[in-house]
Amino acid sequence: MGHSTMSQRIEDRLAQLSAAELRRLLIEHLTKQKLGLTWEYDAIERDEALNADVVLPRLREDLSCSSSDRPGDPYRNLIIEGDNFDALRLLRTTHGNKVRVIYIDPPYNTGNRDWVYNDKYVRTTDRWRHSMWLEFLYQRLLIAKDLLAPDGVILVSINDENRARLDLLMEEVFPGIRIGSLVWRTRDTTSVKERNFSDVHEHILVYGGEQFAFNGREKTQKKYRNPDNDSRGPWNADPLTLAFDRFERENLYYPIQRPVGGTPVTKTACGPMQPRLASRKVRLFKRRRWRSTSAGSRFSSLRTSASLSGSRSTTCLHQSTLGTCRLRQSASDLS
């Protein structure tokens, strides 16, 4: 639909409104604006799939299967072939709040004849291409939301070009339950793009119900070794360097304590200790305690501890005459 035709439709619609209706429309326009995604749903053609028609499925016996341990009983899985809006609307009557995993691979809105709106391909030259795409997805995501179980998750694939639009649309339909996003490499070769930029990845947006959590994998202990037969058990070398000092992040500053009296070490033979983190690697043991010791110096008994639960605590070590410090964490309590 051209710009002039759409403008004429809007003018004709406004001409039918009374003065009171026009004032109300203007007030709504001025007061209901919000931060987020907007699209011209009043200006585009109405999605013809949004109708009151009742579409019932027809079972294909020749394509159906029965369970081997229960002959005659159909599988609990369903494959529905037909218009996606009709299929979703049907499932809402039978599976409302029962679906635990929903995966959607929508049209990517590239304008290259990759999706149809009201039986017409949407092209790159269409003025309302993005608005029609957003309205198309919005109506179907609303039904998907009704299908999602409290412990369910919905995953939606999208290309890099439309990721920002879909992010905002998902926040509109599924506010407050965003889990994150996944990036997956779609090809090992370069893509054909201008300006020497190769686009080789796509995204999967993940939203989950309040009771949803990924199963995850069992924690591995493979990274812990004990090549020097340390009496405290297996350990792993790990850097302690941070991008800020104790003045910028006072809550993450843990000075080395003196063995007698517990006062912080503030001076060395070279003068005041520098407020920066050591760039050396330290030893992390599996036990839930951080132990900082100075190897090969008269301060070898110095140690400090910080809990690993909640926000991760980090011991502030300094490169000085104290020698090279080690941070030890035992492995027994992390499993």
Short description:
With 335 residues, this protein is an alpha+beta fold. It has helices at 3-15, 19-31, 84-95, 129-147, 163-173, and strands spanning 99-104, 112-117, 120-123, 148-158, 178-185, 201-208, 235-239, 267-268, 271-272, 281-285, 291-295, 324-328. Strand 2 (112-117) and strand 3 (120-123) form a beta hairpin.
Q: What do these coordinates show?
A:
The chain is of the alpha+beta class. It folds into 3 domains: 33 residues, no CATH class; 152 residues, Vaccinia Virus protein VP39 (Rossmann fold); 117 residues, no CATH class. Helices cover 20% and strands 20% of the residues. It has 5 helices and 12 strands. The protein has a 4-stranded mixed sheet with strand order 1-4-6-5. A hairpin with a 2-residue loop joins β8 and β9. α3 packs parallel to α4 and α4 packs across α5. The C terminus is likely disordered.
Defining key terms:
335 residues, alpha+beta, Rossmann fold, 3 domains, four-stranded mixed β-sheet
Strand content: 15-25%
The number of E-state strands comes to 12
Any idea what the radius of gyration is? 31 Å
CATH topology of the largest domain: Rossmann fold
> Order of SSEs, N→C?
HHHEEEHEHEEEEEEEE
Q: What overall geometry do the principal axes of the alpha carbons give?
A: extended
| Total domain units | 3
CATH architectural arrangement of the largest domain: 3-Layer(aba) Sandwich
How far do the termini sit from each other?
Answer: 62 Å
Secondary-structure class: alpha+beta
Count helical runs.
Answer: 5
What is the name of the CATH superfamily of the largest domain? Vaccinia Virus protein VP39
Low-confidence stretches: 267-280, 288-335
Oligomer: single chain
Please give the order of strands in the largest beta sheet. 1-4-6-5
CATH class of the largest domain: Alpha Beta
Biggest sheet character: 4 strands, mixed
Q: Return the average pLDDT rounded to an integer.
A: 74
Helix content: 10-25%
